[in-house]
Every structure is written in C-alpha cells, then in structure tokens.
Fold this sequence. Notes:
- By secondary structure, the chain is mainly α.
- The chain has one domain.
- It is built from five helices and no strands.
- Helix 4 packs antiparallel against helix 5.
- The longest helix is centred in the N-terminal third of the chain and has 28 residues.
- It is globular and about 55 Å long.
- This is DMT family transporter.
- InterPro entries: YdcZ (IPR006750).
- Keywords: Membrane, Transmembrane, Transmembrane helix.
Amino acid sequence: MSIMMVLFTLIGGLTLSIQSAVNGTLSRKAGTIETTLLTFLTGTMFLAIFILFFGQGNLLAIFEVPKWQLSAVFLGVLFVLFIVIAVPRIGVIATNITVIIGQLVIGIVIDHFGWFNSLVIPLDMKRYFALLFMIIALYFIYKGNTRASEEHR
C-alpha cells in the first residue's frame, strides 16, 4: 500500500470533518438545503475549472454507462444533505462515526456478495468484531455528547 494514498485518505478524512462542522454551522443561518446547494455549486465550479486544466477523462462517457451507475450522483447529494442535518444535532464526531459504521455495514455486504464487480471477501468474525467495536464507540461518544449538552444548559 502506497504511503501517499494513506496520507491522501487521511487528509480527505480531515477535510471531511472540517467541512461537516462548517456546513453544520452554516446551515443554522442559511438553511439545510441551501447549504447543501451551495456546497455542490461551489464544488461544481471548482471541478469545472480543475477539469479545464487537468482533466484527462471523457465527461461525455456518462451517456454510455449503465444507468444504475449514475445513482452515485444522487447518493452523494443525499450524503451531504444528511451530514448537514446531523452535525448541528449530534455533533461532528458522532456524525462521522455513524457514517463510518454505515460505510462498514454496506462495505461488508458489498464485499461478501461481490456486488458492483468488487472482490468477494466473506464475512468473518474479525469483521463482526470490527463492526461491534465501532457501535460500542458510537454509544460512548453519543452518551458523552448527550452529557456535555446537558451540562451546557
């Protein structure tokens, strides 16, 4: 595994948490759906400029792919919308660990059945325990958040 890919992924995780916190705060003033729209409009403008200078793919290939693959676009919008809704209510860390648990659950199912042309990796006890420990972590984080919010009242 390339150390650069690990670092890029780590930086991606850092930026996701910062974006979640900022979007959650922005949504209190601008609104949830409006914040989500602003996120995607800004991202669209940024990526359009980025494609002009660095793009090497074929954007028109989207008309040639199976239609079910285009669902990823809507799933991304739902993801950001749900994050903008959740962060102001349960906090950044509780939101992020819940996202990770969701990713683990569906990742285990996808790997186990080999959906979307992925490797088939059977479900084993290590994966069960990984998921269990994440759920336990969420419980303690959520309880800590609840106690902290009660103390601030």
